[in-house]
Amino acid sequence: MRAVQVSEPGGALELVERAVPEPGRGEVLVRVQACGVCGGDSAIKDGHFPGVTYPRVPGHEIAGMVAALGDDVREWEVGQRVGVGWFGGNCGHCRPCRHGEPMSCENMGIPGITIDGGYADYVVVRHNALALIPDELAAEDAAPLMCAGLTTYNALRRTGANGGDLVAVLGVGGLGHLGIQFASKLGFDTVAIARGRQKEQLARELGARNYIDSTAQDPAEELARLGGAKVILATVTSAAAMAAVAGGLGIRGSLMVLGASMEPLKVPPAMLIPGSKSISGHASGTSGDSEDTLDFSVLAGVRPVIETRPLEQAAEAYERMTSGEARFRMVLTTGA
Q: Are the CB atoms for 127 and 26 separated by under 8 Å?
């Protein structure tokens, strides 16, 4: 099979030939049809994830078909359309699993990070990592929903916000353009925040009722003028941009951080006390959460805005993603 691997931290994405892997006990072989290129892939590309062995095949936004079953796999059938995200299946016996926290499983493999991922013709994953893809979703659309879609939808539905509440989405990019759609379809009074006016029309087409240009307006003041946000979904990676909007939280409002950054988030603690405001992060979700995301996307008509490239152009697709030129998710296709 073809695979695109990184041989060492900071190394190039290189197309190689490998033997098709065989699924072991409790595992499934998936024939990859599409794989999203995500910012999280930089963890393996640039060597930011501790304890990773190389070479490694990136990719954790996988859509494909069941090609073969390992021993003791009974709930899946060859030919079923399935997706795999960051959640690589939980062990069921570690302390987090036994306390109902499978996303914090101590033995969870992460596709494309700690185990080989979807920049390939085939991938092997645990049986409980799979999510069923509805017939109404093309593989190219389903792939980004396995991470970017799942992360935004799952975070929004667990915030405690109710229909009609003011929800702001910081950033109109790979995560943000999906966050806006989900927020609108969930019935929130949706505000999009971005730099400049270039993305205003798109944001409104995606479902934003209001738009804030953070280069011309104080986003915190504008959110306060609108009544204060119940939720600010921070999809950008800039800690400074997050800090600039935090003052726009309403009573019991929450700044929900999705954009991964190692920058310190400089928010005065005293600002959080009046109105009992909070700052929190949110991990993506389990395979069950992925199925919920895919089903809701079909129900509500949510789709990612994508650009596709064949597998052999993975390096070009990755560069387009990291440069910010992609509109808005890059997806690799295998031709399967």
A: yes
Length of the chain: 336
The amino acid present at 304, given as its one-letter code, is P
Residue-wise pLDDT for 108-146, tens only, equals 999 999 999 999 999 999 999 999 999 999 999 999 999
Cβ neighbour number for residue 192 with a 10 Å cutoff:
28
Those residues of the chain that have pLDDT short of 50 are none
Q: How far is Cα 215 from Cα 218, in angstroms, rounded to an integer?
A: 8
The set of residues, in sequence order, having a beta carbon less than 8 Å from that of 310 and lying 6+ positions away, is 332, 333, 334, 335
CA distance 127 to 167: 36
User: Do residues 191 and 209 touch, judged by C-beta distance below 8 A?
Assistant: yes
Contacts of 13 (CB under 8 A, 6+ apart): 4, 5, 6, 45, 58, 119, 314, 315, 318
Residue 48 in tokens? 């930011």
Can you name the residues that pair with 136 across neighbouring β-strands?
Answer: none
Phi, psi of 48 (to 5 degrees): -90, -10
- Helix, coil or strand: residue 78: coil
Pairing of strands 166-170, 81-84: unpaired
Which CATH architecture is the domain 159-281 placed in?
A: 3-Layer(aba) Sandwich (3.40)
Specify the CATH architecture of the domain 2-146+285-333.
Alpha-Beta Complex (3.90)
Of residues 294, 246, 251, the one with CA closest to residue 274: 251
- Cis peptide bond upstream of 87, omega within 30: no
Task: Give the count of alpha carbons within 13 A of 214, CB side only.
Answer: 24
Question: Domain residues of the chain, as ranges?
Answer: 2-146+285-333, 159-281
Other CB atoms within a 10 A radius of the CB of residue 52 amount to 16
pLDDT digits (tens, 9 = 90+) for 214-262: 999 999 999 999 999 999 999 999 999 999 999 999 999 999 999 988 8
